[in-house]
Amino acid sequence: MAASLYLVAGKTTDSVTHGFLPAAARLGLDTTLLTDRPAAHAGTHDGPLVECDVSDFREIIAAVDGEPAAIFSNSDFLQAPAALAAAYFGLPAKDWRAAARAKNKALMRRHLASLDPVFSADARRVPADAPYPLVLKPREGVASEDVFLVRDAAELATRRDEIAAHRDDPLVAEEYLPGRLHTLETLGDGRELRVLGSFRTTLSPPPFFVEERLEWTAPPPETPQILKQLEALGVGFGACHTEFVVHDGRARIIEVNYRLIGDHCDFLLADLLGVPLFEEILNVHLGEPLPAWHTPHRRHAIAEPVIADRSGKLTAAPGPLQMDDGPVRLAYRPQRSIGDTVAVTRTNRDYLGTVRAIGSEADEVNAALARFRAAHDWTIA
Q1: Which of 175, 199, 219 is the last residue of a domain?
Q2: What would you report as the CA-atom Rg of the chain, rounded to the nearest whole angstrom?
Q3: How many CB atoms lie within 10 A of CB 65?
Q4: Cα of 313 vs its chain's centroid, Å
């Protein structure tokens, strides 16, 4: 009898639909998809699809039939409930407390205060002597949504009121951390935490924080500082995507996403490493140790989103593509479909699709990526 996997999901994502579900099938797992949005997932999964309140670990536990082999989620919002449900059944899982700390930015700052003190306050109670500029953001937000750089108390109040007009979850105001932005991609099996690699991230101009380009690079020499902070948070199992800045030899965490990197960089990471990454992540949740991997030869890679520059209806755009441009391997996966209405938000939600390029040299990768973008049209009417 096949081992049973319960995959806990909210909204549909390519990471689940085209990554983890096919990986589970290749592993021969009997997969049940638990979700509070069954209509959205209809047609993405051949196995059982069960509706439940996936934000509540008790509802996840109640939805499990029999003896599961693993309970897994790749959602930012569902790490803690999935971890609690897995712990109930005695399964390998993330520490639910670490998952809660990673998701809740106020808890994260409080927990790391002895290692790396960063000013952080409830956005409604920011003291007059706060170290402006500050970054205003939802306490448990994602995708740079409603994240703004504010330079004084008046601007803070204006932005706070703008956000409150369309969402009512808590906001925090944090000290702005200068420096070069990096990511750290890790995978742990409970015994070893393996660094998979790092991207250098290019952001849009302030006051917004849209990720415009991610470039594969060696982890900076300050990376051990981040690993120490992740250890303090309790991060050490499964996939984790950490964003941090380096300035004057000091590495400081911006946020911890206790799941695999998204926006199609997960597929780029799998291609770069040359390993079945999605399967290996599921395997650690099945109790398997990390296998030995050969370090890939030096390659250059870029993930570059195509970003909407206006609101309207998407009337022309390429579909999924894979092609070679000389020695450079290119792939494109759309995040919006022709006919979709696009509203510019100045967040990562403005992505129309992402181009991935892998080659041996930076110049050839950049040139191939530029040719690809010039050869295709994305039209918003």
Answers
A1: 175
A2: 21
A3: 11
A4: 27
Q: How confident is the model at residue 139 (pLDDT cuts 50, 70, 90)?
A: very high
Q: Is residue 158 part of a domain?
A: yes
Q: Which residues make beta-bridge pairs with 137?
A: 172
3-class DSSP assignment, residue 187? strand
Q: How large a percentage of the chain has pLDDT more than 90?
A: 92
The answer to whether 85 and 94 have CB atoms below 8 angstroms apart is no
Report d(CA 198, CA 381) in Å as an integer.
37
DSSP 262-312: -TTHHHHHHHHHTS-HHHHHHHHHTTPPPPP-PPPPP-EEEEEEEE--S-E
Question: Residue 269's domain is classified under what CATH number?
Answer: 3.30.470.20
Note the pLDDT tens digit of each residue in 59-73.
999 999 999 999 999
Is the same domain home to 78 and 162? no
Band the pLDDT of 54: cuts 50, 70, 90: very high
86-130 pLDDT, tens digit per residue, is 999 999 999 999 999 999 999 999 999 999 999 999 999 999 999
| Buried/exposed 164-195: b ≥16 CB within 10 Å, e otherwise | eeeeeeebbbbbbbeeebbbbbbbbbbeebee
